[in-house]
Amino acid sequence: MKMTEIAIIGGGPAGLSAAISAAASGARVTLIERDDHLGGQLKKQTHMFFGSKKQYASTRGIDIGDILQEQLAQYKDRVEILTDATVIGIYEDGVLTIEQNDKYMKLKPQRFIVATGASEKFLTFPNNDLPGIYGAGAVQTLMNVYGVKPGSDVLMVGAGNIGLIVSYQLMQAGVNVRAIIDAAPRIGGYLVHASKIRRMGIPILTSHTVKYAYGKDSLEKVTIWQVDERFQPIPGTEQDIEADVMCISVGLSPLAELLWQIGCKMAFVPELGGHVPLRNENMETSLEGIYIAGDVAGIEEASSAMVEGRLAGLCAAFSLGYKAGNYEELRKDCLEQLDSLRSGPVGEKILKGLAKATA
Ligand SMILES: Cc1cc2nc3c(=O)[nH]c(=O)nc-3n(C[C@H](O)[C@H](O)[C@H](O)COP(=O)(O)OP(=O)(O)OC[C@H]3O[C@@H](n4cnc5c(N)ncnc54)[C@H](O)[C@@H]3O)c2cc1C
């Protein structure tokens, strides 16, 4: 069985940042990523990020992933990176099992940082399993990672930031976006993205949802209808939209199965996207030595995922006796950055959620 000091599960912005800060403190780290590359969601984000300079605002997501990997490379003497490697279980004896290239291996770390990100939520309507109906993140992966156009006419369901950004990227790829619909009465994403899309002539229909999807072998047409203020469909408001692709972008759920399995205390916190582990200020869960960071701790943004990762890496290393000279200062800096990222109107919702999830 292999041993390590800190196992970090997930190589997205949270996991990469956790690895950088734990290794910078002096700890030996094993970073495990199920994909064949590091970067998580950043790998497909060709747009420039918002936020503050400290979290690489005005830099494209894909470039932020490269910057983090360059930073991590400085500590290669104490960082082991496993890609194409999926953690399939964490067990009571503190051992985790990894599947890599059809082989299974066991790893016994002294500390864990779980940074597995999130999965896409889906919608219930007749024929929602027709080929051509995707999660918006899946479409972004097809286009921006593999260079594959998903189809020619798209209906986007969800006008949050992901729905708006993916719609724009579809248009950049020459795909016709027929409309964006959202059941909410208001657009959830940043208005700057929505205005850009509207200027290109794409209708954004709020208070609308999907009634029915049609198609013989794959999606051909979608019937949408209006909903009232209680999200109840209004008969007689149906419209048909010809589309061979429907993108569902109705939110993300924390990917917390490993934390359920090991027995972390969990809470259902809608403001954070669903079931999340309880944690303290240092991102340590109810189980000593198991830390979390990023979307698995609550759906937020890459900026906060990176700061949470830094905090978790720092605190996990400190708990092993690695006292980076200015530990208290670094920890305080992370907490202040998180406060500042959560200070806007979107932050209010996150703070409400965190109050329920912080033990
Ligand atoms: C379309 C879109 C646009 C966005 N735009 C912005 C933006 O402008 N600004 C911003 O700040 N944020 C943005 N975000 C949000 C941001 O991308 C996420 O909040 C961020 O990526 C979360 O980081 P993470 O490390 O927690 O998760 P992820 O980036 O999802 O990384 C998790 C990693 O864990 C791996 N993993 C999962 N399970 C296992 C396992 N069992 N074993 C091994 N590996 C595993 C996954 O393969 C993945 O690589 C956007 C997201 C999307 C989808």
UniProtKB/TrEMBL annotation:
Span of the signal peptide: none
Q: Does the keyword Secreted apply?
A: no
Name listed for the protein in its UniProt record: NAD(P)/FAD-dependent oxidoreductase
Question: Boundaries of each FAD/NAD(P)-binding domain copy?
Answer: 5-309
Give the coiled coil ranges. none
Q: List UniProt keywords, sorted A-Z.
A: Oxidoreductase
Domain of life from the UniProt record: Bacteria
